Amino acid sequence: MSLFGSLFSGASGLTAQSRAMGMISDNIANVNTTGYKGALPDFASLVTRIARRVTYSPGGVRAFTSYAITKQGLVQSTDSPTDAAISGGGFFVVNSEADSSGEQLYTRAGNFTPDYLGNLVTPSGFYLQGWALDANEQIADINRLETVNVRVVNGVALATTQVTLGANLDSTQATYTGVYNPGDLERYVNTDGANGVQPHFKRDLRIYDSFGNPHTLTIAFLKTADNNWAAELFVDPGELQGAPADGLLASGTVTFNGDGSLASVDAGLTNITINWAGGADPSVIRMNYGTIGETDGLIQFAADSDVSYIEQNGAEVGRLKGVTIDEDGYIIATFTNGAQRRIYRLPIATFPNPTGLDPRSGSVFAQTDASGEYNLRFAGESGAGRIVPAALEMANVDIADEFTKMIVTQRAYTASARVVSAVDQMLDELMRIKR
Asked: In the predicted model, is pLDDT for residue 189 greater than 70?
């Protein structure tokens, strides 16, 4: 009977609008939830098949739920260095367990904070996943994700690997008239017990071994002919393991052109290896004296010998000071000695159909057959969004739009209730016919 059908149709309207109001209330409740994706009611008619056109059987309405997963929320800056937002497509990868053995999930909520063990977690307790980097800041295993732990490196010392020297050697310096042999320039210890040859110019440089211990590397020059200078590099022999006992590391000749520019540097002076006592790794240091034929490093002019600049890397021991996330997804540890080290890189997970993901509590999503298989990409590449450091993506909910939907839903619910009330009155009239 069509009256009963109308009654059920009105009831289906009440149910559908109730579901829609539930979605609206959730959206409003989560307007300040980081990375929240609003729920959208999709209504579909229910049609009862009829055999003749002269009859009609009402079916009603059904409400389905979809999520605006691909709709970008507003990105707002924060003052937390471990916050990150994605501008564009993709998701951060998280795991329900600290050892990465739990369910792998995906989120747009980038408000990560370290727990008491140093693991970066979301407010809901999901652990951020990333690729671990080796000592050379390269991905150790592209096929393996692990929980990002900002305390994986508590301290770091940077061994010196490069020294760049810019200095002038006085062209008016008198040529040394004695007999010079490599190793003769005055330094810490003379093997024959005699005084060494006094160099025309000498400079001490500060370098560091792999333990962060400071050492003094001395470079000395002696003019042996016009445009020719003998050079030696040496350290305190007490700091060395075994030979050389006199501390000499390298010796050779530096020559200049007639215009004062650098002509040549013996190969032995450009790369030195130092075997330290005390167990530190050997230091391999590249010495840069400038460009051959140019005046950007060592030069020879008629002026007092003096150093223009010295640039060297390396640093003493530094303790972990803080961590940041950069726009390429690198987790960067900063230390008290000014050193920085990349320790993880964050992947961006993309899906063929992100709207097919399954929403879970805690602003996370799970992969489904409808979403397709995930792909891990670098930020900003192959369709993955770029990472915005020290920022968060807000909920993609427009509260004014939600209130408008609320009014419409309320009116639709009232109208469906009126249908039920009207059909009830019609049935009541029908029941009175027999009286």
From this structure: no
